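Reopening this ticket.

The earlier resolution said the output was attached, but the attachment link was broken on my side. Pasting everything inline this time so it's all in one place.
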Amino acid sequence: MSQGTFALLGTRRFAGFFVTQFLGAMNDNIFKNVLMIMIAYRFSSEATSGLLINLAAGLFILPFFLLSPMAGQLADKFEKAMLIRIVKASEIAFMLLGTVGFMVDSLPLLLVTLLLMGIHSTFFGPIKYSILPQHLAEDELVSGNALVSMGTFIAILLGTIIGGTLAENRTALVTGGTVVAVAVAGFFASRTIPPAPAAAPTLRIDWNPFTQMAAMTRLLRSQPGVTSAVMGISWFWYVGSTVLAQLPNFTRHALYGNEQVVILLLTNFAIAISIGAAICAKVSRGKIETGLVLVGAVGMSVFTADLFFMHKAAALAPSDALGSAWGLATGPSAMAFMRAVTDLFLTGISSAFFIVPLYALMQHRSDPSLRSRIVAINNVYNSVFMVGSALLAMTVFKAGLTTVDLLLITAGLNLVFAAVLAWRNSEYPRRTLALLTRGQHGDEPA
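Inline output:
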């Protein structure tokens, strides 16, 4: 990443916000992973634990469907830095409630806390992306989004690792103390965020989420450039949630690796996203380079599909004795293992090429007075696509297919989506051609 991109981390207008969103994403994942592992190992019945895990996932995502329209309106109507501090203060209260849940070993109380954390994330989401254009210059938007994308995936990774470690130690006070401490740190970081004036202070709040959702969908359709960005972002989360959700199964049933290998592959993917975001910022040269989107889409499909072909070509023998990362890297399956690591790494880089310009595009081309509501409806669509990803996975497994089959299907669907995106919006193939043949850069108004 260019020195100018990293320099944003040293500015007051970006640093406090970056730390705040990083700690929030990390805390969400710490709490969720501790709870999911707790459920998985508490109940001997796979059916019971599976039901409760999916219930927990549903509780976290439910507020995104119901409350995103309200969250978007509030973020447009009020000063954003103040709203962030209110949201972060509520996180401290929710984590204190969760600590009580851990200490009294109350699953219902922990599920309520998870629902509250979903509400917290729902209200933070529209502010997270709509505040960037208020604090960053136009030629800093891509770099800012690259840093946020990088930080988000590293935060998810750290949250997963810390959550797994806390769940393994099973010390309620330490677990509760950790999530409360992270929430407190996030609140103090939020106090350094400069003011971001209300974009639509006279806005009248529509408290009906369904009428507001319909109104925002109509508005979104009137802005083709923004619509394509929102659909692309939502599709990214469809593919991303599929790949990340299947990594444990892929590791267990395709590579025959243990939990250590899962963490290694997650780390590999997060590092790749970070490097891809850095390359994206460098190539974009301060502009929003939409030509990277189709390059990223093709890369995502090619390297995700190769996980299927790697598995078929390697013809690894099933094993109940799961290997460590070192064992896989030095054993008979070394070539297959390294190919899988490389595929996931290149999928991560391609994913950054795809998603970073789309977030910048959504922010830049949205009407400033509507920006938070655009981000809010984007979050609704993201949630719908992620639920669709889970439903497809359930259908694939119910049909008797395997994890690598699902990855191949996802890669194929991704190519179809890329083709439709290029067909519906000629800017993407035009900029891709310019990028690949003449090295031209720049954002063209929709």
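Reporter confirms the inline version is readable. Residues 439-446 have pLDDT under 50 and may be disordered. The chain is about 80% helix and 0% strand.
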